[in-house]
Amino acid sequence: MTLYVSRFTAWAPGLSSAEDWREWTAGTRRISLTGESPELPFIDPRFRRRLSQISRMTIQVLHDLLPLEEDTGVVFLSFWGELTQQFKINRMLITEGDISPSAFPVSVFNTPPAAASIALNLTAGYSAIYPARNRFADGLLVAAAPILAGTREETALVYADEYPPPEYRGLHTLEPLSFGAALSRARKGDSIPVHLPQPQAVPSPQAVSQPQAVSNPQAVPSPQTELESPQSFLRYLWSFNPSTER
What we know:
Layout: E1 2-11, H1 18-26, H2 45-48, H3 53-65, E2 73-77, H4 83-96, H5 111-120, E3 126-129, H6 136-148, E4 154-161, E5 177-184, E6 192-195, H7 205-209, H8 230-240
Parallel strand pairs: 2-3, 2-4
Antiparallel strand pairs: 1-5, 1-6, 4-5
């Protein structure tokens, strides 16, 4: 199965130009591990001030991906979601035994795409997906499903994860990174091909409890290198046509 990326955008602390991103793709430049966020001068300051890093990054890459077709839905992928806001909620529960009504709405997993839909007046709807088995490729398949089923011509795929709060940094080494990609089934101009893996069925409990012999371990499929992680997928997009400003 093959889909095409007609255009893509990306945002991360410390990378501000196409040349910066090409150096990152080549492994000669790194994303800054900070809580720096996009400034978002195009949205109301009263709305902007309560947004987290992940929500701001999501809004920025979707803004840069515009214009979208009227019926283009958004599929948001993240492994951790509103990590900082969730930590604040947990700390509030432990120290105060209660949650602030104003804090909870900006801490849920779908806050970034919801905030982007409001800020950018996107009306085609969105899905917020945690990729199964921590596999980016599985999330990509979910984003591709409406296109492959023929119910949509295009989907805006957005990935984002933010820099974790200090209390989590010993457990997780997350790079703050976001990107958006317009996926479609039709090849347009210099679109980048994305070869999707075949969906793998989740085994039933009965099958799991009865080990099966594998006659040829080399035949067990694995995802393509470019689909192993958000970083490898973005590097694939940049390296496909590195001379183009995206």
